[in-house]
Amino acid sequence: MGKANIPDGLENAARKPASAETPAASNRRRTMLLTRKAEFSASHVCANPALSAEENFAIYGSNANPLGHGHNYVIEVTLEGEPDPVTGMVFDLRELKEIINAEVVDPMDHRFLNREIPPFDKVVPTTENLAREIWRRIAARVNAPNARLKNVRLYETADLYVDCTGVDLAEDAR
Ligand SMILES: [Zn+2]
What we know:
The protein is α+β, with helices and mostly antiparallel strands. Helices cover about 35% and strands about 25% of the residues. The protein is built from 7 helices and 5 strands. The protein has a 5-stranded mixed β-sheet. β4 (about 145-155) and β5 (about 160-165) form a beta hairpin. It is elongated. Zinc ion (ZN) binds near residues 44, 46, 63, 69 and 71.
């Protein structure tokens, strides 16, 4: 189709100058991602109590061994926000470290997740479910006008990780 067939209005829209940027686009450019990393070691059994030992072994393999096995977990907690014009910070990094320690590392380090850390007495502590629980714990503590929790990345091993980008709290309450 030749250019001459484009109605005048559409042609003008396509030629809109770059300076006529929308406020939303401008906000996106100012937004930054801030990530803090932490490690903890914990043991777990991947087995659903509602299923038989045979069924659990078929689904989870040796991870269903009732005596458990351990992982050196690594978490990366990412906040999204605009740097404060006065402090130049998206979020206070010391506070973020305190939140991660208080909500995740201190309670979970060197623990048997299934026996010591609710809800894993009822919920299978897969990497996915553990990342959701970490999200739930940290999101409740990140209260800042210019920052929000964007992602929780949980490495179970060096070559396996899960990204949790949100939790449906209504679903959690069921
Ligand atoms: Zn495991």
